[in-house]
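re: ur question from yesterday

yeah so i grabbed the chain u mentioned. its 286 aa long if i counted rite. heres the sequnce exactly as i have it in my notes:
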Amino acid sequence: MRNLAVRIFLFACLFFALCSCGKSDRHYDFKGRVVSKVSETHTLVVDHENIPGFMAAMTMPYPVAANVDLSGVEAGDRIAARVVVNKDGDYELTKVAVTDSSHRQKEVNETRQLFPGEEIPDVELVNQDGKKLRLSDSRGKTVLLTFIYTRCPMPTFCPRLSSLFAAVEKELAKDPKEYARTRLISVSIDPKFDSPPVLRKYGLAYLNGDEKKFEHWSFAVPTPENLKKLAQAFALVYEEEDNQIAHSMSTVLIGPDGRLIKEWNVSDWIATDAVAAMRQVENAKN
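ran it thru and got these structure tokens back, copy pasting raw so excuse formatting
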């Protein structure tokens, strides 16, 4: 059985490892099962085998070279391809070929990732106080939303995202008017474990024990069905194994009209980036 801890660790280190590559492009043989296809971004989410010298076996999204035709690739297909990593650390799949389509799903489950300007799904969540809320409740405010889970063991994943949000919270609180026009939401990807009391305890650790700040920064959990809707909208990949969850990262900026403005898919952004983006939205309204 694949060791999830190793998989999460390698996924966290991916971006750092790639940046240390040599001057010439590197190539790796690639085999796996297509979990979903994101046509708009020409990306495949693949549950792939171990790639010696590059990546442990895991499920994650891979961009595909622009000259590769994906019209014949569907969810459930087994594929063989080549991973090309350039000197800047960027990587993509080339020479994608379907090797087995016998497990192809009757209805292709193609991820519908949102693009800037599109309306986000208005799903229902339950916050740290056990109260129901919908994303539409924040209409009229600029919202920064991310995905975490309280048991996440990797410091460069959920703990870092929550620390970044804490820094954003602190900066926005300096201006009462700005604070009133914005909102932060941390959505758990662990509905089985992250109950409202668990989220409340987790949130207070990042809010310095100040319960009043939950009015501005909510920690909430969706049903598994609603989590899938959000994951599809924001190209979030998550997989539970051995009592932990391997996942990608997605932080999104939502405008007062409930439409997607910007997305960060890694944790290498800093708090000032998000605050500046939120202020830009507010300034555009005036």
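noticed a couple things. Residues 15 and 89 are 7 Å apart (CA to CA). also The chain has a mean pLDDT of 86.
anyway ttyl
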